[in-house]
Amino acid sequence: MHSADRARRHFSSDNWSGVHPEVLAALAAVNTGHVPSYGHDTYTAATIARLRDVFGDRAEIFLVFSGTGANVLGLQTLAMPFNTVICAETAHIYTSECGAPEKHVGCKLSPVPTRDGKIDPDGIAKHLHDFGNDHHVQPSAVSISQATEYGTVYSPDEIRVISAFAREHGLKVHMDGARLANAAAHLGVSLREISGDAGVDVLTFGGTKNGMIAGEAVVFFDAELARNFAYRRMQGMQLSSKMRFIAAQFDALLDNDLWLKSAAHSNRMAGILADGLRSIDGIQLTQKVQANEVFAILPREHIAALQEHAAFQVWTESISEARFVASFDTTEQDVRSFVESARATITGV
After folding, report:
1. Which fold has domain 3-17+258-347?
2. Bridge partners, 142 (sequence order)
3. Which of 49, 103, 258, 285 is deepest in the core (most CB within 10 A)?
4. Tens digit of pLDDT for each residue in 80-94?
C-alpha cells in the first residue's frame, strides 16, 4: 500500500483496519519455543476454556481462520444438500460469500426480503412449505446475522422468538456473529445472552473485524451437532497447524474485556459519524445506527470528491446509498474531519 493510502483514513470496512497492539503483543508472547501443532497445545486449551467461560461450560468451541469458513462449516452441521437454509436477502452468506455455502454444503439458500437486515417469523414462514415433498428442498435451518449487514441489532427477545418459531417447525438456528461484539456492546448484554441463551444452536463468533489478524470461533450450544466437527474442520481446510497464534489473539480479546472496549469504541465512532452526517443538508440516513455501521444516501455528484478524503463503499448504486464502517482504531478526529469535509463539499460552507 502506498504511503498516501496508509495516511488516509478509511470507512470502507472494519476489515481494512490494522491489528490491535494488544493482539500483536499476545502473538509475540506465544512466539517462543516449540509446542504441539493443530491445537494440541496448552495455549489453545487455555483459550478454549476461557471461551467456555463466556459461552457456557457445555459449549463445544473450534477455532478457524475465516468468517466464511466458519459459516460454511457451521451450516454443514445443519443442512444436507437437499435442504434449504432460510436467511435475510442481505445476509453475508447469501450476498458476499461467492456461493460458498451452496458449493460446500450443497444446499439452497432461501432469502427473506428485509428493509433493515432483520427477519422475523412471518418472513421465515413463507419458506415453510412442501414438507415431505420429494420434489422440493426441505427447510432445515434459519440463519441470522448479529449485528446485521445493515448494522442493526436483534434484541435478545427477538432472537428468542425466532429460535422458538424455528424449533416449533423442526429447524435449527445459525448465527453469523462476525460483529457479535458490536451487538453486545450496543445492547449492554453478554455475548451468551444474545446467542446460546436466546436459542441459537451454532454461532460464528468473529474476531477479525474487532482487532484480530485472522480468526473466528465456531461455537456449538448443542454438543451433538459438534460430534464430527473436528473432521469437517480438517476436510474444510480450516484447521490451523499453528493454532496457538489464533488462540493467542482470542486470549488478548478476552483479557480485560478488550473485545467489548474495542466494539464499544467503534460503535461510538459510528454514532458520532451518524450525528455529523445527519446534520448536513442533502444527506439522509437510511438505517438505525446501532453497531459500527452507518448507511446514508449522499448526493451522487459529490461522492467521488468525498471518497478522496476517506474511502467508503457505495452500497446501493441505484439510490446512491453509501456504507461507512468504524473500527477499533477509528479516532474522533478521523470522524470529525470527514464530516467537515463532507459539509464543505456538499453545502459549500
Report:
1. Aspartate Aminotransferase, domain 1 (3.90.1150)
2. 86, 173
3. 258
4. 999 999 999 999 999
